[in-house]
């Protein structure tokens, strides 16, 4: 609790200092969150330039997510050892440096190593940004501070695909990383100017080295298994079997060790509380579905529908409209209502959006693509904060930092895993549908025979006719595959509502301010 106590003597900021401090922290958060989505629409450009497949290109996203997930639980320990302001500054500076390295990457291994570093140093930035922001405002204005912070984190994922698409189409993909450099420099200078004399107490805190090592082994093995599984034909490959066994054994040892360690890196005993368990699992699986689809949708639009990266980014843009407009309203309503109602409505809206997408055809128009994305913004406004309020409801103050770190860890892990699973599942469903459609291409199918005759009448020879038919089948199979995943996502969101209602949250406002560090 030394960290929390150290913040008491620092009075709230006022005037220009408060404005500059808020902008500095918000810029750092914007840069961080932007990088979780800016690469999504640029995967085809990155993959093509580096000479790798699109599914290998998605490692650019998952490597960041996994490194980020592993570093989040270390935030508390690093804060005790370094101080929150110095740690926040170090995160910004190293983030800028790793962004520069990403842009200079000559090949995929160097880019992935740079993204791992970027994800690792980004871990403490989000929780510490909220800590600094909340300490800068009077307690009565904490909801306003969190509302402004939440708007920043909602604008960044919207700006990411648009900015990433435009840069990929008009400049070159390295600039999706170089754009962080001026933003990071301004954020670092302003942060040091305002917060350098407001650091927390530093103490020599013990670190659970064994727990951390086991965490890195099982998370890393699991993610590599998910990423390489499709290429190596899953469990017919010795490599995949070994990775799965390593992940499983390391996870088992990790759970036993963390439950018995004196200073665990992750406090697993929190899962004995129904509010924490129900809220964390619902939030994490919901986020995994959302993030997996956030990667899948622009990839499908570019590889099968013929959209440019910029056009794919613009299709994703409307999600921010209602999210930004309604988030302050959610903050006002939440203390006076049961957060389960808001979370349930959010999940139903997500389910509706994915169901609408499951009805797409290969001739889908832009307005049909954008309508579910626009509606999804309403769900986004009620997604994070109510579920965080449920997750941390009833926890004593001294357990909130550990709960925030663990909730963040599970959520970020699910985001990375969701990306890998959606990529693999789409390929599997596409292959299955392609085989089923090709079965119809025989002399006994009058529709196929008529199509062949029409192509022949148009001047195509037999080889050209079959080539065109195969292209059409491939596009249709990819369409059916992506529709399957949208439909399954809708069903899972409906099923997750049951998890929300096994919780018994106390008043929503109780922990909302103190617990915000789990929100994003």
Automatic annotation (TrEMBL):
Primary site of residence: membrane
UniProt keyword list: Cell membrane, Membrane, Transmembrane, Transmembrane helix, Transport
InterPro entries hit by this protein: EmrB-like (IPR004638), MFS (IPR011701), MFS_dom (IPR020846), MFS_trans_sf (IPR036259)
Membrane-spanning segments: 18-39, 59-78, 85-106, 112-134, 146-167, 173-195, 207-226, 238-260, 281-301, 307-329, 341-358, 378-397, 485-502
Subcellular location: Cell membrane
SUPFAM superfamilies given in the database record: MFS general substrate transporter (SSF103473)
Membrane topology field: Multi-pass membrane protein
Top-level taxonomic group: Bacteria
Domain Major facilitator superfamily (MFS) profile, residue spans: 21-508
Xref: NCBIfam families: efflux_EmrB
Family note: Belongs to the major facilitator superfamily. EmrB family.
Protein name, entry field: DHA2 family efflux MFS transporter permease subunit
Species assigned in the record: Paraburkholderia translucens
Species lineage: Bacteria, Pseudomonadati, Pseudomonadota, Betaproteobacteria, Burkholderiales
